[in-house]
Fold each of these.
Amino acid sequence: MIHFSGLLLQLLEIIVALAAAPLLTGWVNQCRAWLQNKKGPGILQPYRMLHKLFYKESVLANNATPLFRMVPYIVFGCMTLACGIIPTLSTDLPLSPAADAIALVGLLALARVFIALAAMDIGTAFGSLGARREMLVGFLAEPALLMVLFSASLITQSTLLPSIVDNLTHRELAIYPSLAFAGVAFTMVSLAENARVPVDNPATHLELTMIHEALILEYSGRHLALVEWAASLKLFAYSCIGIALFFPWGISEPANPFELVAAIPALAIKLAIGGALLALIETSSAKMRIFRVPEFLTAAFLLAVIGMLVHFLLGA
């Protein structure tokens, strides 16, 4: 039976994700600007952009099908549901038992498939190019992400993220070699999945390098706003997955309101540190050639597999 407090916590997590995701994107962009000795647009710029786009008219191609119109809402819904599955403030989440880590990866893959179909729906060269590249990245990144999640589930004997958080929180503070390998692999996968340097540059529109931007060139108005908001939610979701797997301390337990009050500033601090580290990685890295991306993601997969093998050999 689902308790009323659990429903409130679930709703609170979704509201926090929807409100904080653009702020996280703005924080990362601001940190990048600071590291490049620039002033930057400010951390609230994503909110201004979303406000402007929602009030603009959506322009659609003459040959756009209903699928093209539906995809922004589907992708936004998938990312919102993914953020609701991941424990960020509390482990008392009614949605989590219905969708474990494997279903979470499937939900992210579903959003990728639909955005790739929408990119090819218009029939432009850029859209088809971006769709092929996006599916290539997903084909290599999703198995690596699954191996990372399996490394944590082998330690905790569960694929449910709240159970993983509860188990890791109550264990003695120790360095697990398997999680160390998984952490490096997860960082590499996160860079690829969120179209960040060195895999992709979210600020470029060069046809030879762009992946994510090529998918959404035909969108405008509220449709573009939903797609951009979904991209911020995806970055927020991956950040929270990293927190749940590798830094779960500070996430409140069920029926503990005092820990819930402290969980909000703890989450803000973790996201701020993670965003600053992401900006540092992007600033200190160079954009790799698109033909090197498979090698990059294959290395991530191998590191995640090594992490699992280390667990079987050492039991840690």
Note: The radius of gyration is 19 Å.
Amino acid sequence: MADLPLEQLHVPVLVEEVLNNLIWSTSGTYVDATFGRGGHTRAILEALGENARVIALDRDPEAVSAGEDLARKSDRLTVCHACFSDLSRCLADLGIEEVAGILMDLGVSSPQLDEAERGFSFMADGPLDMRMDPGSGFSAAQWLNTAAEAEIAGALREFGEERHARRIARGIIAARPLSRTAELADVVAQAIPRAARNKHPATRTFQAVRMVVNAEAEELKQGLVAAFDLLEVGGRLAVISFQSLEDRVVKQTFRKWSRPEPMPRRLPVRHESLETPGREVAGPIRASAQEVDRNPRARSALLRVIEKRVMEKS
């Protein structure tokens, strides 16, 4: 795996679907807010004209390094070390006020999962870290070893939709201090009844802990608002999610922007005549069976796209 080129370590999902629904002008400025290893960025660059530009963001220093390598080969690409909540600042620093399109590919990337030292996966033992940016914030071990039982249980329920959250939290408290991913996976396996295990018993717990460590829920909410505000009229925001919690936030946010508030009956205003700032143009789009065969990670991917509309001034 380590001998493969960086761009082959992470296979981007729904590439054609992203290009078909995100790019409406081949001469604009586009943002890939989750560079990863650049699969989507490369495809967007290839689809755009010579005068177009791509700004790529990532909070992972390794991804930023890969992006900078690509930027040295293309003067149409600029890379920023930033998370979703820094999107507005990043573009302002570059003198960019609005863009034609923004892509957000949520969740954890394959290189992060495959590298045991990052601590994202229960499939191989490694330090219990899980930070997308190892140089900032607190690690998974620091949080799990200091948080109260109720806080841990609440996070497992909210971000992992884990039915056995209290039992797992109790087991974590009893096993502290934890420092390795294998230790956490063992605690979860012992806490969950065998009859209740569908997939790996630690899947939901690792997802929840990762989301806490990286503040992913708040980052997503802030990122969606910042991205939509930065779109020019006609610009599009495309979001790929991989789990129901994230997709629910994206779906509800897009509906709020694209559907008017319900009106009381008998008012002299038709519900459908009310203006909205956005228009849903695609989604939910799933990967084809052929893509899932080539890349099993695409199985859970969902793409939604919204377009910014003209709002008439009253």
Note: Residues 1-8 have pLDDT under 50 and may be disordered.
Amino acid sequence: MSHKDITILGESILPGEGKTINMEIARLHTMTKLKIPIIVERAKLDGPVVLFSAGLHGDEINGVEIVRQLIVRKANKPKRGTIICIPVINIFGFVNKTREFPDGRDLNRVFPGSKKGSLASRFAWYILKEIIPHVDYCIDFHAGGASRFNAPQIRIVPNNSELKELSDIFNAPFTLYSKNIPGSFRNACGKLGVKMLLFEGGKSLDINADVTNEGVHGAKRFLQHFDMLNPQKRVKEATSAPIYIQTSTWVRARYSGLLQNPVPAGSYVNKGDVIALITDPFGKLEKKVKAPNSGYIINSNDSPIVYQGDAIFHISQKVG
């Protein structure tokens, strides 16, 4: 097998070479430059190209930490093939600690983008034009938004045996079947033939050590499967298979008030179990929140204050 050419933003990366390419598309309103480092490591031996990306939403920093640790531990230096790391895609949101771009758009809803469109749309266009054509596999790291904590999970589309096999290899505690959302990075990659696993874990503006470890170990298992992991880098073997969730339901607050939520994400609950209390500040209201069915809590709202209608739990309904 011959080595394929990898050229990003006009810079070529040769076999056996490592290079950091800075993508600069726009500046802050202060004219300050903002560069997005694209860290590329190629082995001398040919093999797949794997992309580890994070920070598509600027406030989801747990994914940034996972990719950072892969770099620091030098797990991104492959035995064969190529590993591309983009720890922070939405550098504008990361700077401002916000989910969106400065133009108010969600980058994960504007793919495939446009070269002459909005700021977020232009970033989406350059990512698909300059990086994705080189990529065979991608793991995109996310976290829950709006104080909602996701149990570590992989999300894949239903009825795709290859993605299911890759999810088994990554071996997060949960795998959730979910359809691609139009305009999402995952949807765009799928249309271009890139096999993507979407990792969700933790919550916005937070770094959780357990979630980070799940992400790092899963990524290393993924690389080991393709004989890309450096033999000197140990990988934690999986001790159990992922729990596959086919359907799930959201539990919403029936009252506004203070949320007391003692049941952590990842827990199994039985139908009728009291999983939270909603109280008022004045000692007059105390309402129990009960599990509508037996299942795993894959997302929990960690906000101390909720309003009527807010999503407070995501519970599995059908597993297997």
Note: The first strand starts at residue 7 and ends at 8.
